[in-house]
Amino acid sequence: MERGRALMEQGGAGIWSTVGVAFDLTGAIALASLAIWLWPRRAGFGHAGALVPAAVFVTAGWCLTVVSASASGAGGFLPMVAESARNLIWLAVVYRLFASDGRHASVAPIRPVIVALAFVEVLHLGVGYSLSRAALNNDVMRLMFDFNVMFRLLVTVGGLVLVHNLYAGAPREARPALRWPATGLAVLWAFDLNLYTVAYLGGHWPVEIAAFRGLATLVMTGCFALAAAKNRDFLRLRPSRAVTFQTFSLLVIGFYLVAMVAVAQWLSYADGNFARLIELVFLTLASAVALVVLPSRRVRGWLKVMLAKHFFQHRYDYREEWLRFTRTIGSRGPDALPLGERVVQSVADVFESPAGLLLTPGEQGDLTLAARWNWPEVEVPAAAFPLQAQAFFERTGYIADLDDTRAGMALPDADVDLPAWLTDDARAWALIPLIHYERLVGMAVLARPQMVRKFDWEDFDLLRVIGQQVASYLAENASQQALAESSRFEDFHRRIAFVMHDIKNLASQFSLLARNAELHADKPEFRADMLVTLRNSSEKLNALIARLSRYGNGAVDKLEQVPAGDVAASVMERFRANPQVVLAQTQDVTVTGNRHSLEQVLVHLVQNGIDASSPESPVFLSLTVEGLTARFEVLDSGCGMSADFVRNRLFKPFVSTKSGGFGIGAFEARELVRAMRGRLEVESREGLGSRFLVYVPIAAATDIFQNITSQDQKVA
Q1: What are the tens digits of pLDDT across the range 75-134?
Q2: Are 197 and 214 found together in one domain?
Q3: Which helix (H) or strand (E) holds 710?
Q4: Within 13 Å, how many C-alpha atoms sit on residue 177's CB side?
Q5: What SS3 class is residue 624?
Q6: Domain annotation covers residue 297
Q7: What is the span of the domain harbouring residue 411?
Q8: Nearest to 685 by CA among 444, 382, 419
């Protein structure tokens, strides 16, 4: 069995030896051809012009030496000499490249470092030659192997440090000439670093890895060929961001697996079953960590930020960003999100933000919640953003980093205070104004992404462009809705005109009948009953005509002083038979309004609350005084409404969720309240219920509200 295993190991080593010979021989041919091609072009390398072709030729000789040693099956001293000569001449090339811009004199440690590395190579050769002439046992040979590997590691690490300083410390104008030579040397020595590290950890020469040393020389050949090309300044690797991210992810996973195997190999050096158990435990835990950490959004976000920062001139692939934006904002179909949510998503995708809100101007000018995307838990008040704070953002287009605000950094305009609900919610991260023709049409609030970073100029530029685009979509959508509403009103008015004409004729006939009956009826009792019936019918028809005349303009007959408590009592009397309706609170206050219209509004709101609630859920009506207004509040715990429905459908005429509904009840209620110089506000959450607030001026403040209305009309 042991003999069979030894034969299998010899067969595997033979295969890898053949692969190594193929790569090394190919590398030797390529290097020799490159040396001949570089000689007439050596002036492009400055002070290192003559040394570079020589170094390439020496490296080709080293490859041939490795091929010869592999073919003969004996290591010998000659491959060691060839590799030391290769390292020494490349160290000389690095020194001459430093001399090209005078840094060999200005950077003091360069010369001592190169001399020290050359001394290590010479010492290595001396020790190796001495040991090759002596007869040593296996333990001493093992020690000498480790000693040889350590010498090689010192030189490769030193060479990589020099290459890094050569490129990183060069002036900006000199870097294009050093880019490709530095890359080639870094590939050569980085491969050797990994090779000798694995050899030191494993205690033996890794033939599987060593077989690919020729591949590293081929990469170096290509780099130096590019360095001598005439168009080298335009030769840059420009992979797409998706390919770069995927490739880098694979490299990270590969390095992780190599490190895991290396540590497991190191643990296996200990003897005994306990050491084997430790090795298995480590592999299990390392695999579990990889499965949990590597796929996480935070790690992927960090990788994308690092790649964009160090590999690309611009942070964003603008073509991809634009295509994604147009796909999101222009999506159609039954499964497409409403426009408000698409607006938030299109802005949030720029930073991989997981959620966001859209605020748009309400009836009183304050920004209100128009849409929420993946953010159901945030509590947004009815007036989400006050009117006085909008002028600064409308004028400047300032994009606010809420983390800076929480840290105490004030906005450029010291008079602007952000709402408390924004700054108190740690998940709120950025506030982006949406401006269309120098007018603020909304604001987008983004939630904190997995990988948080500070905004830079490129972020601001992209957000301003996207903000203008989504603002134009919102403005266009508002114009289309207004046009459609106007068209529906026109059709409604045309239809209702015929209805009103017919009802007027009927009312005239009833009135004429009543007058004739008064003159010609024989029986007083019949005449009295007929008169009462006809008068009641006539009054109802005239009231219906007056009510139909008010549709579309919210007009009221007249404004007078009305006891608000009596209005609330009348509404409760209307729903006396329904125990669901509860009068929670009332105050003695007189308002300026129209009693019939106010009762009509409250009855409509209470009835809607009853319709939206289960039979056992109460609907509360309350009356309080708030400043210069009386506030009627209707509160239910029914099914509630979404922010999109409240914003875009609740007060739109001819839009109803009730079977057979006309769809103008809420619209008429709001218009009637406005006609009494009041306002109607709504707060609602799906599954929690709704709260309607009717504000009507108190009688003592009538003159104040009348003056305000007059000033607004003059400004308009």
Answers
A1: 567 888 888 888 888 888 888 887 776 665 555 567 787 888 888 888 877 777 766 665
A2: yes
A3: helix 702-715
A4: 17
A5: strand
A6: no
A7: 318-483
A8: 382
